[in-house]
Design a protein that fits this description.
- The chain is α+β, with helices and mostly antiparallel strands.
- Helices cover 49% and strands 10% of the residues.
- The strands form two sheets. A four-stranded antiparallel beta sheet has the order 1-2-3-4, covered by helices on one side. The chain has a three-stranded antiparallel beta sheet with strand order 5-6-7.
- It starts with a helix and ends in a 9-residue tail after the last helix.
Length: 413
């Protein structure tokens, strides 16, 4: 008679979960007491039995088996001696983890799939502990609020622009900033109707937000998800459009005194509009011939000195002051585009068309044509040599450049 048939005649302790019953048998084998758990596997495949020398282990196995069967997992595990050894060793190693073996196995496979290499798993965990575990989760609206509060001392125009752009971002994302991925940000920046310029302006706002969150400990160290998105323009400078020497002469002739410093500092020194608005007359040293762009006023947060060209000195001398803002205008570019350009129209000539960032583009283009040295020009403009070389090289002839820096105010007789 088979052992399974003999077991049917023995008394047993039923272990029930729902409608499922697993039988726990107790019998003697010599001087030893043996406990056997019996249950049916797939219909038509008979019954399985597993033996134990310990009652508690047998009962726990029986309860686990009943639970699996009750949840539709009709197959009961059948292990060889080697497999049983591996299983028991795994259970011992994982003791205290608090997760079932199958869940742990699934997590392991997911981690290896993500890393692409099993050998990198411990290395990745070590990096995470070192760089990521100290991150404090924070929502996007809260980080934006903290950023705007921290920028309160900046220009009104800057804060207003930042509030507008990030306000639209908050309207779409209210969850933890750490959950946002490069793909999320790229999709948001790909909104219909956004020009390349608007795209890059919104991207700049996100860069500022994510770097701020990183400094506050809301994001891990390293390259942020915002930095992984791509710019559509050339470092935010826009398309390369320049004024001709003739157009520049007409603009200066038609200019008002409150706009003139903006025009000549942009055209003949390549200073950014935002930097000109922050500039003070005391930072222009006519004795040494240098303009100081202080770290606090530079876009790139790096101090630089700009050697003034002779024609720039001549133009500034016509309107210079000992101190005070270079221009009282908060938006000198708009005044130049709307007022000065319109004033250039005559009965014989159409008005000069304004070119966004045209003053800075013109300076760099003509300066490169004259000196043929991207390192020198990049130091003057506060850009990288690579950007200057790739965007401004050979856009004008040396003769064009010399004509540009030969634009002087008319000498009054």
């Amino acid at each position: 008679m088979k052992a399974s048939d003999r077991a049917k005649k023995r008394k047993y302790e039923p272990i029930r979960v729902g409608s499922v019953e697993v039988k726990l048998y107790t019998f003697k084998r010599g001087k030893r007491t043996v406990y056997a758990v019996a249950s049916y596997i797939e219909k038509g495949e008979g019954r399985t039995m597993k033996q134990f020398s310990n009652y508690d282990e047998a009962k726990e196995f029986g309860r686990a088996t009943a639970e699996r069967l009750a949840h539709g997992q009709r197959k009961v595990l059948s292990l060889t001696d080697d497999e049983a050894f591996v299983y028991e060793r795994a259970q011992a190693i994982l003791k205290g983890i608090g997760q079932p073996l199958d869940v742990i196995a699934r997590d392991y496979v997911d981690a290896v799939d993500t890393l692409g290499d099993r050998t990198k798993l411990v290395e990745a965990a070590t990096y995470f502990v070192k760089h990521c575990v100290k991150v404090t989760p924070q929502t996007v609206p809260q980080v934006v609020a903290e950023l705007l509060e921290s920028r309160a001392g900046k220009s009104e125009r800057h804060v207003k622009d930042l509030r507008l752009r990030l306000g639209r971002f908050v309207a779409d994302y209210t969850g933890p900033i750490g959950n946002l991925t490069q793909r999320d940000l790229a999709l948001w920046l790909a909104k219909p109707g956004l020009s390349s310029r608007s795209h890059d302006n919104y991207r700049q706002a996100l860069l500022l937000l994510f770097r701020f969150a990183q400094k506050r400990g809301y994001l891990a160290e390293g390259k942020t998800e915002a930095e992984k998105t791509e710019s559509r323009g050339d470092n935010g400078e826009g398309d390369i459009e320049v004024f001709t020497p003739s157009e520049m002469q007409r603009l200066l002739k038609a200019s008002r005194k409150d706009v003139l410093p903006y025009l000549v500092l942009g055209a003949f020194a390549g200073i950014r509009t935002a930097e000109i608005v922050r500039l003070d007359w005391s930072e222009i040293n006519f004795d040494s011939g240098y303009i100081e762009i202080k770290k606090s006023k530079a876009k790139t947060k790096g101090r630089r000195l700009i050697k003034m060209q002779p024609n720039l000195v001549a133009w500034l001398n016509t309107v210079k002051k000992s101190s005070g803002p270079i221009t009282p205008l908060k938006r000198p570019e708009k005044t130049a585009a709307d007022v000065v350009c319109r004033a250039t129209k005559t009965k014989d000539e159409v008005a000069v068309a304004w070119k966004h960032n045209g003053l800075r583009h013109s300076y760099c283009t003509y300066r490169m044509a004259v000196v043929q040295n991207e390192h020198q020009v990049s130091a003057e403009m506060g850009n990288s040599p690579a950007m200057v070389y790739s965007n401004y090289r050979e856009l004008a002839t040396k003769e064009d450049g010399e004509a540009w820096f030969a634009i002087f105010p008319e000498v009054k007789s």
